Amino acid sequence: MMNRPAAAQTMTLPEEIPGDTVVTAILPAAAYASDVGFLGSAIYTRFRYHPLAVPYESMTEVRVQASTKGLLDFRIRHDMTETFGSSIRSFWMLHGERYPNENYFGIGNRTPFDDDKWDDQYYFYDVIRLKAEWSSRYNLYQRGRRGGRLDLKGTISFSYQDPDIADDNLLGSGNERPRGSDGGWMNTIGTGLLWENRNSEAAATRGNRAEISFDWASPWLLSDYPMATLSGDVRQYVTLPVPYFYPVLALRMAGSRAFGSIPFWEFPHLGDEYTLRGYPQFRFRGDAALFYNAELRTWVYQYHPWALRIGVHGFHDAGRVFHFDDGDALDDIFNDYHRTFGFGVAGSVLTPDFILRLDVGFSDEMYRIYANIGYMF
C-alpha cells in the first residue's frame, strides 16, 4: 500500500476527501511524556471541507488532558479559512492549564545542570496559565488557487501567569528573584508577513514556508511587562526519490529576539517539543534564541478507505540562546550550539489533517518523551 509515487502519498484534497464533507472524531488517548508523567486525553475534532476552501473550510479542536504528575489542561481552537464569507482567515484559541513541573535553570546559554538537583526538584516550580488569542491572515498575493501566497498577519492575545515560587527551588532561592516571579499579565498585539507554498499544512511533501512577526506588549493593553519580540521562521520540504518509501526531508531554521522589560517566562527559549527535543522544558533562556531542526519522515502503512496512515521519522535539532548581559555577542552565532537527536512515530485516521505524534529525544543531559498533535513543523 505504500509502493506509490510521492505525489500520491500526500492524501490532500480533492482525491481523498470529497467536497462539502464534515469529518468528526472523538479520540480518547493515553501516553507517557517525561515532563508530566502518564497522560490521559480526550480530543474532539471537526473538519469541514469544501472544494473551494484550502486546506479546509473550518477546523475545531477541543482537548482536555490530565496526568499523574498533576497536569490539568483545557484548550479550544477554531480555524476559519473564510471568515463570514470574506477572504480573511481567522484563528482563535482559549487555553488554561495547571503545569506542575515547569523548569527554571537560570538565564543564559551555559546555565549549569546537576542530576542530583534535578532529582530533588530544585529546578521545578508550579504554574497556572490562562490565555486567549485571536489572529487573522489577509491575502496580499496569490499565485493560483493552490499555489504560493503572501499573507499579512494580525494578532491580539491576553495571557496570565501565576508561578508558585518555593524557597527550596532555584527560582525562589536566589538573592534576587528574576523579573516575573510574581506573575502577571502579558497582553500583546502583533503583525507580520507569512509566505505559504506547501502542498499540505499538516504533512507537507514539497514546498516552503517563511514567516516574520513582531509582537508588542503595550501598557495601554494593561500588560504588566512592556516588551517586544521579533521572530522569524523558514521551512523547506523535499521528497527524496527513494523507491517504495519516498521519504520527506523537512528543514527548519527559526529565531527570536526580545526587547524591554522581559519577565523570565517570556524570554526566548530552547528545550521542548517545538525547539530542542531531548532537553528539559525551558532548559535555556536568553535575550535571543536561534535554532534549526531537520526531520526525515515517511509513511510506512496506509489504508485509504479510512484515511489511515502510520509513519516514522528521525530528527536532529540544534540551537543556542544569547544573553547579552553575560557577554554574548552576535559573533558567537556559530559557537556553543546544543544538539539533540531522536526518532518518533506519527499516525492519522479519518482525515489527513489530524496527526498524532510521539517523539523520543536525546541530549547530553537526558532523554525526553513527547506526545503531541501534528508534526513539529
TrEMBL record:
Main localization, broad class: membrane
One Gene Ontology cellular component annotation held by this UniProt entry: outer membrane
Subcellular location: Membrane
Keywords, sorted A to Z: Membrane
Database matches in Pfam families: Omp85 (PF01103)
InterPro entries according to UniProt: Bac_surfAg_D15
Domain called Bacterial surface antigen (D15): residue spans: 151-377
Name used for this protein in its record: BamA/TamA family outer membrane protein
